[in-house]
Write a structure and sequence with these properties.
Number of domains: 1
CATH topology: Umud Fragment, subunit A
Helix content: 10-25%
Radius of gyration: 14 Å
CATH architecture: Ribbon
CATH superfamily: Umud Fragment, subunit A
Number of helices: 3
Distance between the termini: 34 Å
Largest sheet: 8 strands, mixed
Order of helices and strands: HEHEEHEEEEE
Length: 134
């Protein structure tokens, strides 16, 4: 079992609140997505891509939801936590476009508030952990 998943299980067994860093691997991401379905989880912001909306080190609350139930909440302007396979970590960025792609379905174009360019990759529903609470 991966180190990050072991850390989460230790916190759960001690009834500690879980505060995640964005730097988790895909296996831990999927584990948390399943474990915290329809609940809230705190994530510590790293980096400045979402400045001034979120400052480095600040905590954000993410509502982890089931795929079908939260698709309607994924609208332009919402901040989401998702796994980026290129960077191999979780990222929190804003949805700037919602697209319907043949054979894939609905996908999302994201961008950090402090970045000039949109993110290179589209985000599919399966890679989204949840919506950042306003």
């Amino acid at each position: 079992m991966k180190k990050k998943i072991k850390k989460v299980l230790e916190m759960l067994s001690k009834n500690k609140d879980i505060v995640l860093e964005e730097d988790i691997d895909y296996e831990a991401f999927l584990f948390l997505k399943d474990l915290y379905r329809n609940k809230k989880i705190e994530i510590k912001i790293s980096g400045s891509s979402m400045y001034p909306t979120f400052k480095e080190g600040s905590l954000v609350q993410v509502e982890v939801l089931e795929d079908k139930s939260f698709q309607k909440k994924l609208k332009k302007g919402k901040n989401i936590a998702f796994f980026d396979h290129d960077f191999k970590k979780m990222i929190i960025h804003r949805i700037v476009k919602v697209k319907n792609v043949k054979q894939v379905g609905v996908v999302y174009r994201t961008k950090g508030d402090n970045l000039k360019e949109e993110d290179k990759n589209l985000v599919c529903l399966g890679n989204i952990l949840g919506v950042v609470k306003d």
